[in-house]
Fold this protein.
Amino acid sequence: MTDPTLATVERALDRAADLETESAVTVLQAAREDVRTLEGEPDVDADRRRELETRLDQRLREVTERDAYDSGLGAAMNPAEDDAP
């Protein structure tokens, strides 16, 4: 396997948007590990690396929260008027 780059991490982040939850989480977790591997590398833009790491963490939260909402937890927290007591 080739060494990770910020460009490959960014592509993984973009690709995860088109995947189902489980696959997206797997891709995002691997990309997060790649971006962490790049920490301290002299030829890596540290600001861009941190930005990508933040985006990955946010996207992982979005995907997992979306899954919780879709599974009914969100519906229980925000019932429609018809379902309200």
